[in-house]
């Protein structure tokens, strides 16, 4: 038996688009009408390719995300995989039972009560009444619809609708779970419960297909991702690389995006590059083994890194609240504007624990320009107020004009990103944070610490 849950081969979906309703009738009757007049001896539609030559394989227990702008073809692809829409060309091989939440309340009859819809959906999925009986209380409690469970779902709010729909699909033992943006609906408390269920399912053998515009969720849950643009899969691979490319869709032409996607898995290496020698107190590791997540070394070369402890000695293992120095060396490949480094730290679940640009550090003197071949060393000092675990750290470099850097504090959080140009992002290495050396006392709970104070006022 195949260990693949889903195999998609050369999948395409083409729609016929008609300018007028009458043209659809003309197309249907073309064989007869063409005998009457030659003007009917032609197609009255134009072709629209919603999906073009999509290919991927997903093993049992793996997860994948589909990302892209609105209209890219994500929902169309999900519907074909779920079997609610037929493809024009290609094959979809599914090995397992699919539970799909494709849209708000999909599969619900608005005239039926919530209880009746639970049993109807369970029956459609192939479960016996006895099995649904055994799961009903759990579904009812999770959905939080209360007494409305015996009311027609047409009387439900949109939040209640999706709560019950998600509860049915997620709790009726899915082998393959398909979710299209459903986690963005509902209040924060229900969203938290949904995320807990997803994590539990991913810990088992459930295959997971997820569509979202929340890139953080994609990176957190999906090992791989497909970036769709105008119906084409322009990138298929690591979810972190895919999401970094997604953010460039508005800034680059389709041709540039495709070239960037090719470079993600086949980064250009600079064969004729001669690294400039400098006198440094830091012993740097070479960047040769570092993985380029986005961009290239066309304008800036990340030539080395070092991770040091408080005594400025090389280290990869730390204790909670230790001081660490993240040191990086970059070299300009051409004259350029201000080079701004960023440091990002991720845990094993791909959750971003920390991220900061150089200009967000206090008293950081960023040069306003670099000349060709000029070298810069950057040292970032952090107190590792992190939960004991293993972490991945990445470095990014952007460029910004001097006038914008001088006025960075006047820009809104949404507008300042339009002021810089991304150059390269590199996954550098890993480090670990351990428990205190004496005892098991933790100075905080959660993923990271926050500056804080506590005061008691005792009243007699």
Automatic annotation (TrEMBL):
Alphabetical UniProt keywords: ATP-binding, Nucleotide-binding, Transport
Q: Where are the transmembrane segments?
A: none
User: In the record, what terms sit under GO molecular function?
Assistant: ABC-type transporter activity; ATP binding; ATP hydrolysis activity
Quote a single Gene Ontology cellular component term.
membrane
Gene3D superfamilies in UniProt: abc- transporter (atp binding component) like domain, P-loop containing nucleotide triphosphate hydrolases
> Ranges for the ABC transporter domain?
33-255
Family, according to the entry, reads as follows: Belongs to the ABC transporter superfamily.
| Protein name, as recorded | ABC transporter ATP-binding protein
Native species: Leptospira ilyithenensis
């Amino acid at each position: 038996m195949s260990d693949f849950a889903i195999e998609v081969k050369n999948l395409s979906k083409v729609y016929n688009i008609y300018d007028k309703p009458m043209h659809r009738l003309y197309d249907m009757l073309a064989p007869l009408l063409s005998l009457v007049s030659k003007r009917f001896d032609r197609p009255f539609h134009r072709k629209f390719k919603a999906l073009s030559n999509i290919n991927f394989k997903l093993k049992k227990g793996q997860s994948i995300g589909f990302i892209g702008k609105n209209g890219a073809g994500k929902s169309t692809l999900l519907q074909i995989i779920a079997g609610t829409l037929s493809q024009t060309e290609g094959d979809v091989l599914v090995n397992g039972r699919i539970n799909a939440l494709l849209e708000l309340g999909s599969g619900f009859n608005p005239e039926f009560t919530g209880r009746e819809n639970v049993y109807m959906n369970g029956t459609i999925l192939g479960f016996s009444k006895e099995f649904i009986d055994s799961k009903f209380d759990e579904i009812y409690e999770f959905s939080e619809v209360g007494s409305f469970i015996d009311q027609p779902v047409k009387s439900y709010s949109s939040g209640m609708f999706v709560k019950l729909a998600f509860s049915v699909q997620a709790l009726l033992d899915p082998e393959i779970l398909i979710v299209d943006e459903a986690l963005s609906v509902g209040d924060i408390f229900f969203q938290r419960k949904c995320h807990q269920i997803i994590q539990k399912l991913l810990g088992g053998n459930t295959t997971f297909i997820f569509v979202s515009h929340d890139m953080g969720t994609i990176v957190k849950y999906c090992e791989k991702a497909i970036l769709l643009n105008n119906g084409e899969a322009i990138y298929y691979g690591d979810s972190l690389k895919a999401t970094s490319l997604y953010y460039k869709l508005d800034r680059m032409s389709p041709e540039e995006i495709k070239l960037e996607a090719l470079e993600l898995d086949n980064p250009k290496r600079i064969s004729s590059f001669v690294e400039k020698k400098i006198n440094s107190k830091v012993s740097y590791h070479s960047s040769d083994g570092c993985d380029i997540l986005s961009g290239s070394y066309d304008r800036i070369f990340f030539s080395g890194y070092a991770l040091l402890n408080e005594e400025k000695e090389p280290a990869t293992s730390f204790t909670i609240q230790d001081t660490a120095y993240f040191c990086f060396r970059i070299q300009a490949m051409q004259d350029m504007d201000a080079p701004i480094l960023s440091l990002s730290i991720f845990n094993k679940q791909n959750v971003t624990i920390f991220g900061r640009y150089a200009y967000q550090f206090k008293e950081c003197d960023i040069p306003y320009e670099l000349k060709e071949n000029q070298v810069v060393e950057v040292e970032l000092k952090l107190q590792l107020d992190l939960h004991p675990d293993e972490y991945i750290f990445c470095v990014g470099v952007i460029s910004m004009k001097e006038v914008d850097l001088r006025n960075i504090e006047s820009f809104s959080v949404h507008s300042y990103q339009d002021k810089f140009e991304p150059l390269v992002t590199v996954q550098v290495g890993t480090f670990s944070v351990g428990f205190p050396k004496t005892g098991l006392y933790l100075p905080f709970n959660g993923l990271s610490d926050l500056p804080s104070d506590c005061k008691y006022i005792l009243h007699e």
